[in-house]
């Protein structure tokens, strides 16, 4: 909005660089440029202020597709007042000389004009598409159709309005129809999710089976090794027992041989002693054969006396002496 200062009857106007001012004095153009500052007489002048910055208009356009389905398109149109001198000839942008504000609603007029034109192009573009095509891929073709149609529109060109482009934020159908169109995609997505779930479960089952098989193989391997260990321990025990038995047998055989040698040595010694004693006895006997009987009797008595216990006192009675002498005499007589 322009800034107006008063000085008596005169007015002073100043604007920003984004505002184009057209000053007419008595039907003649006195000032026509952006960011101006000048004095004017409100009684003989008309001042129009046109914004020359880029502007956007958002609108909701309704149309019907080729399969007779209603759709709603949210569209944003970018535009600019490229020829302000032409704009002020078609749209009232005059400002109040006291306040600097517009005397009318020029931007509403422009918005209504652009909205109607854009809605017409939306209807033309949607008429050649089915609901599925419009909802799924109609945004790009609709954007191109709106931009091209507005850029080539003669009314906008003559009014000094340039359309910079258009954006389509969404193309929506009826809620029930959209759910109907979304059903195949949802079912496909659900099918894909189910397949992923099944594959994940199958993979988990395969992994669990692999783990169980691995555990079973480990247990089998441990059992085989345990069996080998038991067999080896048994073999070692048998070997130790055999070795111990062989050692015991060798030791027993050695003891037996030693006992036999001792026995043989003892027997040999006993034989030798016996033979020696026998030889001695034989020699004695041979010697006794040459000795007189009386001498032998005396020797026997001496041997007998040596074998008898010690006699401290001996009492000889007449009867004993008589019997002994009789025996001795009788014996000698007999031998004689």
CATH class of the largest domain: Alpha Beta
| CATH topology assignment of the largest domain | Tetrahydropterin Synthase, Chain A
In helices, the fraction of residues equals: 55-70%
**Structural class category:** alpha+beta
Q: Which second-level CATH architecture of the largest domain applies?
A: 2-Layer Sandwich
- How are the strands of the largest sheet arranged? 1-2-5
Can you write the helix and strand succession as a string? EEEEEEEEHHHHEHHH
How large, in whole angstroms, is the Cα Rg? 76 Å
Low-confidence stretches: 332-336
Note the total helix count: 7
CATH homologous superfamily classification of the largest domain: Band 7 domain
**Quick one: overall form?**
rod-shaped
Total individual domains: 2
**For the report, how would you describe the main beta sheet?**
3 strands, antiparallel
* Mean pLDDT over the residues: 84
Using DSSP, what is the number of strands?
9
Strand content: 15-25%
Distance between the termini: 201 Å
Short précis:
With 336 residues, the protein is α+β, with helices and mostly antiparallel strands.
What does this structure look like?
Helix content is 60%, strand content 21%. It has seven helices and nine strands; from the N terminus they run ββββββββααααβααα. Helix 2 (106-126) crosses helix 3 (131-151). The termini are far apart. By secondary structure, the chain is α+β, with helices and mostly antiparallel strands. The chain folds into two domains: 3-173, Tetrahydropterin Synthase, Chain A (2-Layer Sandwich); 196-287. Mean pLDDT is 84; it is low at 332-336.
